[in-house]
Amino acid sequence: MASGALQLLGFVLASLGWIGIIISTAMPQWKMASYAGDNIITAQAVYEGLWMSCVMQSTGQIQCKVYDSLLKLESMLQATRALMVAAIVVGLFAIIVAAIGMKCMKCMEDDQVKKMRMAVFGGVMFIVAGLAALVATSLYGNRVAQAFYDAYTPVNTRYEFGSALFVGWAAASLTLLGGAFLCCSCPRRETSYPATRGYPKNASSTGKDYV
């Protein structure tokens, strides 16, 4: 019973993390223009994401432009894109596999061992998806931090962490945690020993009655 609850909790957490990875990938706020300096115009806010860059005016109007060419993008951005998309795809398959292995599902009820293995395999896939998202967001955040502290970077072109990075970190953590719960929900097999055979009482080997 406890393993079933742990399995359900892991599936819910991992699924929420997977949804968060999708949201983080689609958000344009992966980095935002920094205003940590003097004489910086704050009439507009500049955001950059994996797919587009946006400018928000002080009036609240937002204008976004999709990146024109994939080949013109820097390698770090392309790698981040690839890792996030891979995390989404792997997470989708993980949901399908883990759902089949859930105890509350009717699939594969006749073979509990395979059903249990499906749930564990789904948890492993969730862990892989979470690691891919965590690596992508961490590498991108490290690149933003390096450019911010670089003395040769002009003050008016420095960027800080955007909200999409924090969403991505939280989503990756949930996916990893949920995948770990799914892997740990596998009940340990109890060692089965052969039934002890009862030995008949020795009536009397010699056939003589002892007084």
Automatic annotation (TrEMBL):
Keywords: Cell junction, Cell membrane, Membrane, Tight junction, Transmembrane, Transmembrane helix. Its main location: other. Signal peptide: none annotated. The chain crosses the membrane at residues 7-27, 79-100, 120-141, 161-184. Claudins function as major constituents of the tight junction complexes that regulate the permeability of epithelia. This is Claudin. Belongs to the claudin family. InterPro entries: Claudin, Claudin1, Claudin_CS, PMP22/EMP/MP20/Claudin. It comes from Caloenas nicobarica (Nicobar pigeon). The gene is Cldn1. Pfam families: PMP22_Claudin.
